[in-house]
Write a structure and sequence with these properties.
With about 100 residues, the protein is an alpha+beta fold. The protein is built from five helices and three strands, in the order αββααβαα. A three-stranded antiparallel beta sheet has the order 1-2-3. The chain is globular and about 55 Å long. The N and C termini lie far apart (about 55 Å). It comes from Tenacibaculum jejuense.
Length: about 100
């Protein structure tokens, strides 16, 4: 399936930000993980070192070249970028 600008804009309307991961000329498109996905990914990571990346990649995948999810060398490259999907904002805690 060829992903075009209209498809990306549709995903943006539905999911907010959309991210492209590119490996060896292959592209995949991801949305940001939600709390439920991150919780499941962190639980899975306790028993499977690659579990975190597998869960996030599978649950945030919007479309693109499926080889990124099935070919180990492409998956490992994409997995190295998964942490960039997670934005952690600064919080401040003050005693009142």
């Amino acid at each position: 399936m060829k992903i075009n600008k209209e498809q990306i804009n549709s995903w943006k309307q539905q999911h907010g930000e959309v991210f492209e991961v590119a490996v060896d000329g292959k592209k995949g498109y991801l949305k940001k993980p939600d709390r439920k996905t991150l919780s499941y990914a962190m639980t899975n990571a306790q028993t499977n070192p690659l579990g975190f990346a597998e869960v996030v990649l599978e649950n945030c995948w919007l479309g693109g070249d499926e080889d990124i999810k099935t070919n180990d060398s492409l998956f490992f490259a994409a997995a190295g970028q998964i942490d960039k999907l997670i934005e952690i904002k600064e919080a401040e805690l003050k005693k009142c």
